[in-house]
Amino acid sequence: MEKESSDLHGNAPDTCPVAVLIIDMINDLEFPEGPQLLEPTLKAADCIAHLKSQAKRLHIPVIYANDNFGHWRSDISFLVKHCLQTNVRGKSVMQLLKPDHTDYVVLKPKHSAFFETTLSLLLTYLGTKRLILTGLITDVCVQFTAQDAYLRDFQLSIPSDCVVAPSTERTQSSLDYMQRILQADITPTTDLDLQRFL
């Protein structure tokens, strides 16, 4: 799912001050908390899909940062195929958020999308100053990524309707923390104006 464009041939890309990061939404939800996560994840996926559509219209880069399901030989095509073609709980989520050929993909080995990945280099390449974080799980991988982004001086937006945890209390507690400590804008997608970040 690497981006297919002239920038793969050594030309500088069109830089953009903002990028959308979709965390761990390529997900079969086949784990103990999966059943309780399905409904809120579908709602968030619908909001993320709308956000992604807006971003595409404004030529804002979209980056998927995803676990490798613990398999070090995994690749993104395998993960997407698994979530789409197998009878797994997360299939309907993947149908809403399947990556396309213009999206960027980073496979992550641990909680933060920055840890031991190429994300920092990619964001420098794209000229990104603000990250819009979405995905699973609010108080784990999203928050770990947000903390690492904050330490790297990125401005943060974390739309409250685009992140999910096993309980609304966990999500709200994490959002409150990221708003207070990491200075994140948690405006939901219904009120988020992407144009103002350009």
What does this entry look like structurally?
The protein is α/β, with parallel strands linked by helices. The chain has one domain: 3-Layer(aba) Sandwich (Rossmann fold), CATH 3.40.50.850. Helix content is 39%, strand content 15%. The protein has six helices and six strands. The protein has helices spanning 34-57, 76-85, 91-97, 119-126, 138-151, 168-181, and strands spanning 18-23, 62-67, 104-108, 130-136, 155-157, 163-164. Strands 1, 2, 3, 4, 5 and 6 form a six-stranded parallel beta sheet that branches. Strand 4 (130-136), helix 5 and strand 5 form a beta-alpha-beta unit. It starts with 17 loop residues before the first strand and ends in a 17-residue tail after the last helix.
- Share of residues in strands: 5-15%
What is the CATH first-level class name? Alpha Beta
Enumerate the spans where pLDDT stays under 50 for 5 or more consecutive residues. 1-6
- Per CATH, the superfamily is Isochorismatase-like
Q: What share of residues is helical?
A: 25-40%
Largest sheet: 6 strands, parallel
Which shape, going by the Cα principal axes? globular
Could you spell the SSE succession in H and E letters?
A: EHEHHEHEHEEH
| CATH-defined architecture | 3-Layer(aba) Sandwich
Mean pLDDT figure = 91
Could you tell me the CATH topology label.
Answer: Rossmann fold
- How many extended strands? 6
Please report the number of helical segments.
6
